[in-house]
């Protein structure tokens, strides 16, 4: 890990970095606009860094921390290359595109998420029953998630540009409304598992699944003590083409 930490220090010039056993790296907030869009992803041969067998364990506590401020208007998931591994930096931003909070997550071994999804593939989320329409617009059905992961598993790294380029430019980051991220973060699980997938437009996308004790947890207890659904999430906004921090009419809520 020493070499990784040195690399991160050089890349980000941060004042404080700490690394935990789960490979989550906390970085001091630094209002550097370049850091909110890319960190090496566009300057590397990414065919060597993708591993369909690896995903990202995102601690819900860290998500809660970076969206705690009511100034947050967007959360970005930014892929980047460190020591030939594809990390993801998660950044919350205000309306001036200044960083509110951020942390890095390293790729780790698979949690066999695909087989877990297969076990619930007949389940259907009722989007109309979700009171928050912003959250409802990001719900991904289990069978769709399986399709995304299967398509990604079949993709050869030699044609990775086919799925990572939009409008002639490599996708720089994916964004979500803080409303959706808060919903994810407030589930009674310790981890949101981020997988890569290929959507029905044949483009790389994100799949977020709530995980607890290596099991998918799709139920949470509401404030009224009734059962309410947690979800699998996607429909994050890729940049390009949706790069404007004020361009998502689903930010509010």
From TrEMBL:
Domain of life: Bacteria
Name of the protein in its database record: DUF4837 family protein
Organism: Aquimarina hainanensis
């Amino acid at each position: 890990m020493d070499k990784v930490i040195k690399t991160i220090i050089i890349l980000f010039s941060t004042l404080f970095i700490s690394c935990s056993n789960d490979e989550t790296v906390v970085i001091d907030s630094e209002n550097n606009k370049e850091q909110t869009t890319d960190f090496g992803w566009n300057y590397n041969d990414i065919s060597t860094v993708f591993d369909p067998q690896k995903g990202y364990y995102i601690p819900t506590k860290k998500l809660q921390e970076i969206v705690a401020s009511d100034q947050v208007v967007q959360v970005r998931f930014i892929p980047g290359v460190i020591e030939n591994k594809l990390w993801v930096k998660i950044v919350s931003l205000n309306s001036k595109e200044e960083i509110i909070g951020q942390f890095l997550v390293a790729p780790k071994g698979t949690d066999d998420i695909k087989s877990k999804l297969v076990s619930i593939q007949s389940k259907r989320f009722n989007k109309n029953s979700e009171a928050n329409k912003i959250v409802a617009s990001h719900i991904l059905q289990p069978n769709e998630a399986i399709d995304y992961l299967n398509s990604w598993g079949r993709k050869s790294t030699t044609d990775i540009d086919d799925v990572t380029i939009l409008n002639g430019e490599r996708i720089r980051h994916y964004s979500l409304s803080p409303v959706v991220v808060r919903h994810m973060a407030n589930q009674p699980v310790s981890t949101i598992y981020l997988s890569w997938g290929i959507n029905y437009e044949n483009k790389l996308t994100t799949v977020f699944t709530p995980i607890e004790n290596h099991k998918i947890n799709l139920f949470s207890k509401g404030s009224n003590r009734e059962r309410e659904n947690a979800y699998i999430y996607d429909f994050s906004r890729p940049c390009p083409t949706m790069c404007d921090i004020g361009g998502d009419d689903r930010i509010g809520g």
